[in-house]
């Protein structure tokens, strides 16, 4: 079963940028559609961005135009470029196979604060 390890989080000021990475324990190749999720302190886990087989991407309305999801199949890695960050983007960010609701990694904390 493929598992993921997220990295790249940190503390950033509003308007700043962060780049998250998520490395898979096995080949992701072209076998899976993948997603970035996040969970704020008082919130349910929610889907932020998805990349489907064939490369099509989808974003939650509140990150559209600010976040970019990409994948590197050769490196078995998923990326999330986050620009124009807002305090409400503060959350733990996770990646997973799209639609899979278990086998979560430890996530990476993103904190947006002055």
Describe the structure.
With 114 residues, the protein is an all-beta fold. It is built from no helices and ten strands. It has strands at 4-7, 10-12, 18-24, 34-39, 46-51, 57-59, 67-72, 77-82, 91-97, 108-112. The strands form two sheets. Strands 2-10-9-4-5-6 form a six-stranded mixed β-sheet, with no helix packed on it. The chain has a four-stranded antiparallel β-sheet with strand order 1-3-8-7, with no helix packed on it. A hairpin with a 5-residue loop joins strand 5 (46-51) and strand 6 (57-59).
Structural class: mainly beta
Strand-residue proportion? over 45%
Helix content: under 10%
| Radius of gyration from CA coordinates | 13 Å
How many individual helices?
0
Total count of strands = 10
Order of secondary-structure elements: EEEEEEEEEE
> Given the C-alpha coordinates, what overall shape results?
globular
State the assembly state of the protein chains: single chain
- The residue ranges in which pLDDT falls below 50 over 5 or more consecutive positions are none
- On the 0 to 100 scale, the average pLDDT is 94
Report on the biggest sheet.
6 strands, mixed
Report strand order across the widest sheet.
Answer: 2-10-9-4-5-6
Distance between the termini: 40 Å
């Amino acid at each position: 079963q493929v598992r993921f390890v997220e990295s790249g989080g940190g503390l950033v000021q509003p308007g700043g940028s962060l780049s998250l990475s998520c490395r898979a324990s096995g080949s992701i190749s072209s076998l899976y559609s993948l997603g970035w999720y996040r969970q704020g302190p008082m919130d349910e886990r929610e889907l932020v961005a998805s990349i489907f087989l064939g490369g099509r991407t989808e974003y939650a309305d509140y990150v559209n135009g600010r976040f970019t999801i990409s994948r590197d199949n050769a490196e078995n890695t998923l990326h999330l470029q986050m620009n124009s960050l807002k305090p409400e983007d503060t959350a733990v960010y996770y990646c997973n196979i799209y639609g899979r609701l278990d086998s979560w990694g430890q996530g990476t904390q993103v904190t947006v604060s002055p």
